[in-house]
Design a protein that fits this description.
The complex is a heterodimer.
Chain A: E1 4-7, E2 10-13, E3 19-29, E4 34-39, E5 46-50, E6 54-55, E7 63-76, E8 86-91, E9 98-99, E10 103-107
Parallel strand pairs in A: 2-10
Antiparallel strand pairs in A: 1-3, 3-7, 4-5, 4-8, 5-6, 8-9, 8-10
Chain B: E1 3-7, E2 11-12, E3 18-25, E4 35-41, E5 48-54, E6 59-61, E7 69-74, E8 79-84, E9 93-100, E10 109-110, E11 114-118
Parallel strand pairs in B: 2-11
Antiparallel strand pairs in B: 1-3, 3-8, 4-5, 4-9, 5-6, 7-8, 9-10, 9-11
The chains are: A mainly beta, B mainly beta.
């Protein structure tokens, strides 16, 4: 099983600031199979990034993904009010999908 | 518009079987080559993939999943189902149904989720 560890657990930032979220895998993940999701309270997760760096339909360009191997990053260049949420990374390379435990981006 | 909608009992007793259905609208399950699956989220916790089924009926499950699980598809009713047997309080969660293109595709389409509580 590929264990994904996200850090930090919570990120306290103000609107307009830059957010950098980390996802570290216990073994190498092909970047093609790494995704990021955003979840707001009471809602289903929404795919933001797939293939480590490709934006899903409707994802604003202030969101960007990068990384390879065991280290992946989601960056929000300038936080807007609607971006305060929980973010999960997921690997879907193996037939045993796993998610990270999530990073909460909260308003400072 | 393509939508997924979960339904089923919101309360299940320990040791009994949890049964949920995901109704698909806007497309016929049998007419498209997609996988249909389930993901759950215990209150205040992260996401756990349970398993998925291909439109033809082929299934694959999370090998780390502790509870006995069965996913089935009913193309005549255009829905797919989840059964977890011998549930415990640890199975209390919001259950989401999802759709994905292949076994190595991200989850682009999600249902809104349904909370199932396991309690006597």
């Amino acid at each position: 099983e590929v264990v994904l560890t996200q850090s930090p657990a919570t990120l306290s930032l103000s609107p307009g600031e830059r957010a950098t979220l980390s996802c570290r895998a216990s073994q190498s993940v092909t970047s093609t199979f790494l995704g990021w999701y955003q979840q707001k309270p009471g809602q289903a997760p929404r795919l933001l990034i797939y293939g480590a760096s490709s934006r899903a339909t409707g994802t604003p360009d202030r969101f960007s993904g990068s990384g390879s191997g065991t280290d992946f990053t989601l960056t929000i260049s300038r936080l807007e009010a609607e971006d305060f949420a929980v973010y999960y990374c997921q690997q879907y390379e193996t037939s045993h999908w796993t998610f990270g435990q999530g990073t909460k981006v909260e308003m400072k | 518009q393509l939508q997924l909608q979960e339904s089923g009992p919101g309360l299940v007793k320990p040791s009994e079987t949890l049964s949920l259905t995901c109704s698909v609208s806007g497309v016929s399950i049998s007419s498209t080559s997609y996988y249909w699956g389930w993901v759950r989220q215990p209150p205040g916790k992260g996401l756990e993939w349970i398993g998925s089924i291909y439109f033809s009926g082929t299934t694959y499950y999370n090998p780390s999943f502790k509870s006995p699980v069965t996913i089935s598809v009913d193309t005549s009713r255009n829905h797919f189902s989840l059964q977890l047997s011998s549930v415990t309080a640890a199975d209390t969660a919001v259950y989401f149904c999802v759709r994905h293109r292949t076994v190595t595709s991200p989850l682009r389409l999600w249902g809104q989720g349904t909370l199932v509580t396991v309690s006597a």
